[in-house]
Amino acid sequence: MERYRIIPTLFWIGLSLFVMVLSYHMGLGGFHKPGPGLMPFLLGALLLLTSFCLLIRSLLKKVEKGRTESKNQHQVNYRKIGLVLASLFFFALLLETLGYLVVASLFFIFLFRSMGNRWRTVWIASALTVLVTYFGFTFFGVKFPIGILRF
Amino acid sequence: MDIYSGLLSGFQVILEPSNFLYCFVGVFIGTLIGVLPGIGPIGAMSILLPMTFGISPVASVIMLAGIYYGAQYGGSTTSILVNIPGEASSIVTCLDGYQMARKGRAGPALGIAAFGSLIGGTFSVIALMFLVLPLAKAALKFGPPEYSSLICLSLLISIYLARGSFVKALIMILLGLILGCVGIDSVSAIPRFAFGCPSLYDGIGLGQIAMGLFGISEVLINLEESMDRSIFQTRVKNLFPNLEDWKRSIGPITRGSLLGFFLGILPGGGAVIASFVSYALEKRISKNPEAFGQGAIEGVAGPETANNAGAGGGFIPLFALGIPANAVLALLIGALIIHGVSPGPTFITQHAKIFWGVIASMYIGNLMLVLLNLPLIGLWVKLLKVPYKILMPLILLFCLIGAYSINNNVVDVIIMIIFGIVGYILRKFDYEPAPLMLAFILGPMLETAFRQSLIMSDGRFSIFVERPISAVGLLIAGLLLISTGFSYYRKTKTKVILE
């Protein structure tokens, strides 16, 4: 069995146990007077049961050889995904400090460039997008943080 | 208010310039996101949700509904011209639509898709108008046990109709229900799963989850694939199908309207299932089934009609019971709740302006869509040429702004990014996020109804089977479970014999 296929199942088992323990501490109450933890506890128990079914099914399932090979052939560009995620966190963490105009400009320049666009396209597209979104969303009542640069 | 005076008041609402404009904006954005692969109606609606806070509830629902049914129109354009479905409900249109385009008949294919969509969409609005009122009247007699059973049944049907593994869809439903429990408990005022974070006391925001699961994760998945798309080089001409095309299409359009509407009412399926079933039906009853896949116009007319009729059918449980049939409509319920409008059987009487305004907007919106999709086809074709490496940063920025503008809080943005990563991982392991979204919206409703039922019966579970409607709901749910178990057993048995 491919090891990676069992990881989510184990995660669900862990999550369900975690939910059940937390729910138990919230107070289950009784069926005549349900407490705040009753519903999540029942859901956690159902998740545990379902995860066990999935685990048993995964353990019994034989992996077809061809399928494994085709999975291995598909190379995923995790570098690109990592860059996008890093830029998203960068935007979120610096938005209030630097302000929308600065952060959005840097975000666009970085993303457009890392996606392989030419520098000319990068500058024009970034400037246009940042200005259009700034004025467009401000028109719709969105209040952007001004940041340390005061604009 | 009877149907005719209601409809008249609805047209008064939609003909107000601002509402008319929001209807146009909705169908325009719907067509746009339908044309552009990489973002679906849920993603677009969740991004625009915070923008609707400042406008009236009726305008907000008109616009969001427009995005939903508009996306069904737009999806066919990419299927026919690029062989890439803009929406899941347009997947089958690729089979014959693209072949028609290759044979120089892109115009009639686009034309029949637009006219079929108009007929299917309009039929579903008329049927919706006549069916929703008696159903809402009947639903007034529903109590918490009936609601609990119906919500359970809805969730179970959505699992049953979900693509892929039943067990994985069930896990998604349970995860959605657990996420719906986050926040302060409405009865005891005890915070649940908030871990001391004040931003979580009100629960996880609908917008953050939707944008993460359907916006960010969609972009991450698309990054794995090639960013180049080739558009079939053809001049789009003769958008009006000829008499022969109409003769061949009238049957599929009629059947697609009926089939789509009734399948649209079922939770979990809606437009997607309707289009697949319509294609299968047309192929089965056709005198020339071998022509399907080679550019048969019936293979475009039927599914494209059915997906629009299905989109309309989904509004029945939404307006009559307050139970959404799929994740997109769950978002619409979320928008109503944000505006202080509680959906349910009393919705039509208490908020007649919103209900009739939305109904009338669907008539106008469907007409707008034909006008947008046929004369402006050149514009959509040009948009298809915008490279994904330009579109992708834009989609991400809209998600970021959308998440931030909900509460002007960076924590919401971080929550959205986390859900984006979660959605990406889930998709990588073949877990569908749509059932999670539906369960997340229905979770709090189910919990309230479930707890009220237990309090009513002094802790007796028999209350769920003592009341006829609730008992029927549970019986159907039970039968579905048994049938799924049985079919799984048969599959396993066949596999064992073969091995």
Describe this structure in words.
- The complex is a heterodimer of chains A (151) and B (499).
- With 151 residues, chain A is mainly alpha-helical.
- In chain A, 75% of the residues lie in helices and 0% in strands.
- Chain A is built from six helices and no strands.
- Chain A has helices at residues 3-26, 38-60, 65-73, 78-98, 100-114, 119-139.
- In chain A, α4 runs antiparallel to α5 (100-114) and α5 runs antiparallel to α6 (119-139).
- The longest helix of chain A has 24 residues, at 3-26.
- By secondary structure, chain B is mainly alpha-helical.
- Chain B has one domain (3-498).
- Helix content of chain B is 74%, strand content 1%.
- Chain B has helices at 3-14, 17-35, 41-48, 57-82, 91-102, 106-139, 144-161, 166-180, 206-224, 243-265, 271-285, 298-313, 315-321, 327-338, 347-350, 352-373, 377-384, 388-407, 410-428, 433-456, 463-466, 468-498, and strands at 183-184, 191-192.
- Chain B has a two-stranded antiparallel ribbon.
- In chain B, a hairpin with a 6-residue loop joins β1 and β2.
- The longest helix of chain B has 34 residues, at 106-139.
Key phrases:
heterodimer, A: 151 residues, 2 domains, 75% helix, B: 499 residues, mainly alpha, 2 strands
SSE topology sketch:
The complex is a heterodimer of chains A (151) and B (499).
Chain A (H helix, E strand, L loop, with lengths): L2 H24 L11 H23 L4 H9 L4 H21 L1 H15 L4 H21 L12
Helix pairs in contact in A: 1-2, 4-5, 5-6
Chain B lengths: L2 H12 L2 H19 L5 H8 L8 H26 L8 H12 L3 H34 L4 H18 L4 H15 L2 E2 L6 E2 L13 H19 L18 H23 L5 H15 L12 H16 L1 H7 L5 H12 L8 H4 L1 H22 L3 H8 L3 H20 L2 H19 L4 H24 L6 H4 L1 H31 L1
Antiparallel strand pairs in B: 1-2
Helix pairs in contact in B: 1-16, 2-4, 2-16, 3-4, 3-9, 3-14, 3-18, 4-5, 4-6, 4-12, 4-14, 4-16, 4-17, 5-6, 5-12, 6-10, 6-12, 6-13, 6-16, 7-8, 7-20, 7-22, 8-20, 9-18, 9-19, 9-20, 10-11, 10-12, 11-12, 14-20, 18-19
